[in-house]
Amino acid sequence: MRTMNMRIWLIGALALLVQGCGGGGGVADPSTCKFQGAKSMLVAELAFGRNVKGGPGVSDQDWTEFQHETLTPQFPDGLTVLDAVGQWSDPRAKRMVNEPSKFVILAAPDTQATAQALRIVTDAYKRRFGQDSVMVIVNQRCVAF
């Protein structure tokens, strides 16, 4: 079980997500992007824990299916997936937990559609794998491809 502080942090991160994905007025002035060809975009970083209560965890096969069935259809323009290890404090067990994770980075327009796609992905993962949360960090960045 995650700590109350983790839940408060996640609620705050989601509030920033909703605020940052307001569309229209939330987009930074493209002239602030100094790198040639860069434009202002929303960059989202998501951490998907792979431990499952009472189970063997989210397997590579499970992740691949989730990525192809849910994540990619919501963000068809592309994304990056990295293997990671998350760490959090379990207050009941009074110990630190290291959790294998998938870390996703994506850049998308700062729109309501992007905010909705992020919610669809995180909600689907939590439901499918019995997760308490998915960490989401969003901010406006200058992006070039």
What's the gist of this structure?
The protein has helices at 4-20, 60-74, 112-129; strands at residues 39-49, 80-90, 95-108, 135-143.
Give a quick set of tags describing it.
4-stranded antiparallel beta sheet, 34% helix, elongated, Alpha-Beta Plaits, disordered N terminus, 145 residues, alpha+beta, 3 helices
As a whole number of angstroms, the C-alpha radius of gyration is 16 Å
- Extract low-pLDDT stretches: 1-26
Going by helix content, strand content and strand pairing, the class is alpha+beta
Shape: elongated
CA-to-CA gap between the ends?
Answer: 40 Å
* Count of the separate structural domains: 1
Q: Hey, roughly how much beta strand do the residues contain?
A: 25-35%
Characterize the biggest β-sheet: 4 strands, antiparallel
According to DSSP, the number of beta strands is 4
CATH fold name: Alpha-Beta Plaits
In CATH, the architecture is 2-Layer Sandwich
Q: Assign the CATH class.
A: Alpha Beta
Helical percentage: 25-40%
The overall pLDDT, averaged over residues, is 84
